[in-house]
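Protein modeling request. Please complete all fields; requests missing the sequence field cannot be processed.
Requester role: graduate student
Desired output: 3D structure, C-alpha cell encoding
Chains: 1
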Amino acid sequence: MILNLEESGGGRGRHRATLKAVLVDNINGRRTFQDVLVKGPWRRRELAALKDQQELATAFKYDGKVGAERRNRELEDTSWSDQDLQDLGGAAAAPEAPAAEDDDFDAEADSEAEPEAELDYAHEELPVKVKGLQQFEGAIYTWEEGVARGCVAPAVSQALLQMQLARPTLIQRYALPLICRSGTDLLAQAQTGSGKTLAFVIPIVSRLLTSPPVSRPFFPGPMAQASPVALLLSPTRELAIQTSKNVADLFLHTGSSMSVITLYGGETISQQVKPIERQNQDIVCATPGRLLDAIDSGKVSLMFATTVVLDEADQMLDLAVGLEGTVTQVTDGRDLPRNDGRQTLLFSATMPDFQTKQFHAVLKKPPARLKLRVGHYNEDEKGGSC
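Delivered output (386 residues):
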C-alpha cells in the first residue's frame, strides 16, 4: 500500500494521508476506491492494497478512520509496513465521527439543470430509485417476462436457466428494462455482489443475438483488425476476465458463434490478440491501458462500438487511482463514437459527489440519461446485496 503522509497542525498524533487502496467495509459490504484519513484508533477495516495501479495485491488490517480527505496528494510516496500502521494508530487522540459519504445520485453537474423525475419502489426487499423517467413500465421479475418485453433474447432466457440462474436479481430486474430503452444511457448503483455484471451482459448479448448483423470489414491474417460492437471496460484484470467469462458462457449456452476477447496487462499483447487473426470479435472486455495498446498497434478499432460499459465506474474515473486519464483517452481520444452516437452504461458501487462531472461527462444529457440506485446508501443504514 502507498501512503502520502504528513502530521497535521497542532500535533497530538493526528495525521493526514492519501491512500491508494480499495476499502472494504465488512459490516456494510461496501467497497470504495478513495483516499483515507489515517487517525486511530478507530474501527477495524480491511484494505486490499493496489499493485501496479490496476491490480489488487494482498489484504491486511489496520486501525484507521475512513474519510474523504483528498488534499496533500503531492507529498512524497512512502511505503508503510503493517507495524508502521499499528504504530500510527496507537498515537491518536479521541476519534472523530466518520464523515458522511457524498452521493452523486441526486447531484447534477450543472447547477441550473432541470430536476429529473424520480420514482421510488418501497415494496422491494431493498430500496430502489429510478431517476429521469416520468413513467416506468416496471421491473422484470422472470426471464420469461424479459422475453415478452423484448429485453431478453429467448435463447438467452433458456441459457440462464441452464446456468442455474432461476430469476433476475434486484439490480437485474430494473436495469434490464432501462438498458433496453432505445437511445438512453444509464448510471446504475448497487452493492458489490448484487449481480451488476450480468445486469449489463444479458441485455447486450440479447441485443446482439436478435439484431441484424452489423456489416464490418474484416480480413483474416497477421494484419487483421477487430471491430467490436460492444466494449466492456473494467479497472482490473480480474474483473475483465470475469466479465469475459460471463459473456462467453452465454455465447456457449445459446449456441452462438459470436466471439469475445479479453485484453489486460501482465501478459504479452501479441498472445492476447492472436484470436483476432482468425475472426472478428463482437465484444471486447478490457482494462483501459491494454485496450489503448491494442488500438494504437492497429489490432482493435472502436468505430463500430455502439455500446460501452464502464464497470466499477467510481474506480475507473477516480483521479487518485490514475485511471481517469486513460479512460478519457478511450472515450474521447480514439475512434469510439461520441456519446450521442452510442449507448453508455456506468455501473458502480458508490457515486461520490466529487465525481459528478466525471460521471456525467461520458453520458448523454437528460432526458437521455437515466439513473438507477438499489440498496441502502446511508451511514445509519445497513447495506446489502440483492
